[in-house]
UniProtKB/TrEMBL annotation:
<dbReference type="InterPro" id="IPR053152">
    <property type="entry name" value="Hydrolase_YcaC-like"/>
</dbReference>
<dbReference type="Pfam" id="PF00857">
    <property type="entry name" value="Isochorismatase"/>
</dbReference>
<feature type="domain" description="Isochorismatase-like">
    <location>
        <begin position="15"/>
        <end position="166"/>
    </location>
</feature>
<dbReference type="InterPro" id="IPR036380">
    <property type="entry name" value="Isochorismatase-like_sf"/>
</dbReference>
<protein>
    <submittedName>
        <fullName>Nicotinamidase-related amidase</fullName>
    </submittedName>
</protein>
<dbReference type="InterPro" id="IPR000868">
    <property type="entry name" value="Isochorismatase-like_dom"/>
</dbReference>
Length: 217
């Protein structure tokens, strides 16, 4: 494993994950992609954060009165985690959410949510305005249309935010297939949520060799 710490890469020791409005009503109103795929990606992201010990802040729009409880893909992973209820559309403007994020002391703020054009864009822009480092997990977020989703991501990017996928995040966290501490959890996550590629990945030194041989065949 390389001993060099690349500061531009996302690190599980420097990151905090904020999951915003992954609720049934919000999911039903989205049409930027396949809902089943989105739920799979949300599950992969949640399990990745959990496997690497990344602090995760959960929030929803009035879960009991409006948006509904969080998706099962999240409650299965974060069983006892408090969900911060909001009425503010901009999660960063909610004191409970903002304080919970800042209390972690992490500099890399990773956001995913519904809907991209409001639930993701507003807090991302607000955190960026404060000079913070913001990343958006694009494929664990969704908008009311494909255009709304893409334009939302574009606005965040133009303001200095960085879009990425949940698999990209996992790769930056893991960095070395021979990493003993998390390799079993990562292998399970990839097998369950990484599609055909994830199911074909072999972990550890021997697994990396097997994967290379399969790609070459």
């Amino acid at each position: 494993m390389s001993s060099h710490a690349y500061k531009t890469l996302l690190s599980p020791h420097e990151s905090v994950l904020v999951l915003i409005d992954h609720q049934p009503r919000m999911l039903a109103g989205g049409s930027s992609g396949e809902r089943e795929t989105l739920c799979n990606n949300v599950a992969g992201l949640a399990r990745t954060a959990n496997a690497f010990g990344v602090p995760t802040v959960l929030t929803g729009i009035a879960p009991e009165a409006f948006g509904g409880t969080l998706l099962q893909e999240l409650t299965d992973v974060f069983r006892d985690r408090r969900v911060i209820s909001r009425t503010l559309i901009n999660a960063w403007a909610d004191r409970g959410v903002r304080d919970a994020v800042l209390a972690t002391g992490r500099r890399q703020i990773i956001i995913a949510g519904l809907w991209s054009e409001v639930g993701v864009v507003l807090p991302a822009l607000s955190a960026l305005e404060e000079g913070r480092e913001v990343y958006v997990v694009a494929d664990a977020s969704g908008g009311t249309s494909a255009e709304a989703h893409q334009l939302g991501l574009q606005r965040v990017t133009q303001a200095g935010g960085v879009p990425l996928t949940w698999l990209q995040l996992l790769g930056e966290f893991q960095r070395d297939w021979a990493g003993e501490e998390t390799h079993a959890a990562v292998e399970a996550i990839l097998h369950a949520h990484g599609g055909a590629w994830g199911r074909g990945v072999g972990m550890g030194r021997d697994g990396a060799v097997r994967g290379t041989e399969r790609d070459a065949s």
